[in-house]
Amino acid sequence: MQTIPTRDFDLLPDLCDHFPNDVNVFETQFNSYGQHQVFCGQAVTVKCFEDNSVVKKLVGTPGQGKVIVVDGGASMRRALIGDMLAEEAIANGWAGVVINGCLRDAATINQMAIGVKALGTIPIKTDKRGLGDQDIDIRFAGVTVKPGDWVYADLNGVLISAKKLELLES
C-alpha cells in the first residue's frame, strides 16, 4: 500500500472505482487554482458568509498537511481567500483549500505551491465582522464534511471520505 501521492494524475476516478462505498463526491464543478492540481489531507471545516475572519485566523495556524474546507454559502459576491491568505496557508503547511464560494488574485495564486478549489473568482474582498464557525459539520453540493474527514482533490473534482484511502502500488 502507498500513501496517496500529490502529483498530477487522475486520482479521483481510481478512488471512486476502488472505494465506491467510502466516497462522497461534491455535485458542483469547482475550478482549480494553484500549482498543486492534486492534493489531499484531513478536513478542517469553516462555515462563513462573505466574511473570511475565521479563514484568515485559521491559515495563520499550523496546517500539518490538512485541507481547509469552507462553506461560504456559494456566494459569488465576495472572495474568501486571496494571494495573501494563500501565501500564509503555504507558509503554515496547509495542503489546500476547498471553497464553496470565490477567491481573488487568481493569477497570483496560480503561481503558488498550493491547491485551491473554488466556484469562481471575484475581485471584491470580504467584510471583516468576526463571523463564522470552525470545526463543525458543514454541508454543501450534496456532501456533508465533518472535521477530520479526508479530502481528495484533482482536476476531476473533490471527494470526501470518513477514512484515509490508500491504493495498491501498480
TrEMBL record:
Gene3D superfamilies: Ribonuclease E inhibitor RraA/RraA-like. One of its GO terms (molecular function) is oxaloacetate decarboxylase activity. Its EC number is 4.1.1.112, 4.1.3.17. GO terms for biological process: regulation of RNA metabolic process. Keywords: Lyase, Magnesium, Metal-binding. Pfam families: RraA-like. It catalyses: 4-hydroxy-4-methyl-2-oxoglutarate = 2 pyruvate; oxaloacetate + H(+) = pyruvate + CO2. Signal peptide: none annotated. Substrate binds at residues 82-85, 104. Its cofactor is a divalent metal cation; Mg(2+). Mg(2+) binds at residue 105. InterPro entries: RraA (IPR010203), RraA/RraA-like (IPR005493), RraA/RraA-like_sf (IPR036704). Homotrimer. PANTHER family: 4-HYDROXY-4-METHYL-2-OXOGLUTARATE ALDOLASE 3-RELATED. Belongs to the class II aldolase/RraA-like family. Catalyzes the aldol cleavage of 4-hydroxy-4-methyl-2-oxoglutarate (HMG) into 2 molecules of pyruvate. Also contains a secondary oxaloacetate (OAA) decarboxylase activity due to the common pyruvate enolate transition state formed following C-C bond cleavage in the retro-aldol and decarboxylation reactions. This is 4-hydroxy-4-methyl-2-oxoglutarate aldolase. It comes from Thalassotalea euphylliae. The lineage of its organism: Bacteria, Pseudomonadati, Pseudomonadota, Gammaproteobacteria, Alteromonadales.
